Amino acid sequence: MNFQLTEEHLAVQEAAREFAQTELLPGVIERDEHQKFPAEQIKKMGELGFLGMMVDPKYGGGGMDTISYVLAMEEISKIDASASVVMSVNNSLVCWGIEKYGNEEQKQKYLTKLATGEIIGAFCLSEPEAGSDATSQRTTAEDKGDYYLLNGTKNWITNGSTASVYIVIAQTDVAKGHRGINALIVERGMEGFEIGPKENKLGIRGSDTHSLMFTDVKVPKENRIGEDGFGFKFAMSTLAGGRIGIASQALGIASGAYELAVKYSKERKAFGVEIAKHQAIQFKLADMATNIEAARLLCLQAAYDKDSHADYGKSGAMAKLFASKVAMDTTIEAVQVHGGYGFVKEYHVERLMRDAKITQIYEGTSEIQKIVISRELLK
Ligand code: CAA
Ligand code: FAD
């Protein structure tokens, strides 16, 4: 383990920080309030290479390592977690899934556009009655010879109305259980594919979360990723890396709130001194900084494991479990440090507190991360 950041790492971190400050910060409060998708900002992120960071340059990606990705995710998430979830889904679920398991035709047709941000992707596993219990897929992909007939509903899909390409997990052979599930690439606009209304959410309100309805959608066989029945393993394997992205998002939300709390505590005066001079505030900052440092090390450990081709299922789950709790705890305390000002939108910390919550829910709830970790420990 060597967490000495290289010049390339520092350059990526700086570029992400600069982009977040100049392009994401202006308007972030309004986008949250009006649930406005950061369309222009996402376009620029694509142009700067933030949407396909780890993809091989021959498919239009940045060819970077996972550590660079963690660093960039942290910086973007400090300012706008609605933008960083788009980045996380596109990089670590959609691009990674197609690059790792797709065939050459699929890579040429889809990955080259996804990696440059020309189009964005969505990953569709969850259903109204299958969230944590992901093997209980009700969406069906009936084998009709040269195509699959797709029927069912997916819930809570990030990039639901803005994506052009959707990786949809569906059951082909019920008798085979999770070994009868497939992963299909569905294109926006295919006949019988409908997008439900945007969810009105507590946090990450700029991201567009929708349910998707499929009625007799004909998906060509060549759009299946991997062998017949590989879909559930595809989803699990892809999510193992996705959790490093969400862990880094949680880390960024926490460190963004911490930086605001430090700044405010040096400005605000109470009882004749800056509140930073009160030990109660100092101790809050000390706890925040210690937890954030530990979360950062877990994120980097998981990224290092992935980059060095070690097993990263457990370290990614640990990073997500811990960093998402740190995000929640830190943002609550950051609001407290701000007093009443923390409760209004102009000071940003209330938004970060609302955004933090989702990191304990999506890409596997904290309880699911504990299942993943304990199974690894006990096997
Ligand atoms: N890689 C490859 N295969 C894996 C795997 C991995 N990391 N983890 C499990 N599998 C395989 C198993 O080997 C098993 O296959 P075999 O029987 O052939 O060996 C198969 O998957 C089923 O595994 P389990 O028996 O462990 O399945 P389970 O029903 O006990 O469930 C679970 C395991 C961990 C709880 C899983 O269902 C899970 O992760 N649930 C959470 C779902 C989730 O994270 N959803 C996120 C949706 S995407 C999202 O949220 C995006 C976003 O917000 C931005
Ligand atoms: P449930 O599975 O019903 O869980 C309810 C509670 O029970 C949770 O606390 C859970 O931890 C607990 N629980 C369940 N089973 C167990 C168990 N065995 N042991 C202990 N506790 C348990 N999904 C996608 O596929 N793609 C996306 O892009 C996507 N984006 C999302 C964006 C947002 C804003 C949201 C809210 C969700 C998104 N999701 C997405 C769905 C998300 O992954 C699920 O909400 C999550 O996996 C939990 O599933 P559920 O909501 O059905 O909760």
Summarize this, please?
Helix content is 52%, strand content 15%. It has 379 residues and is α+β, with helices and mostly antiparallel strands.
Describe this structure in words.
The protein has helices spanning 7-24, 28-33, 39-47, 66-79, 81-101, 104-116, 231-267, 279-307, 313-338, 349-358, 366-378; strands spanning 121-124, 140-143, 147-158, 165-171, 181-187, 193-198, 209-220, 269-270, 273-274. With 379 residues, the protein is α+β, with helices and mostly antiparallel strands. Helix 1 runs parallel beside helix 4 (66-79), helix 4 runs antiparallel to helix 8 and helix 7 runs antiparallel to helix 10. It starts with 6 loop residues before the first helix and ends with a helix. The structure holds acetoacetyl-coenzyme A (CAA) and flavin-adenine dinucleotide.
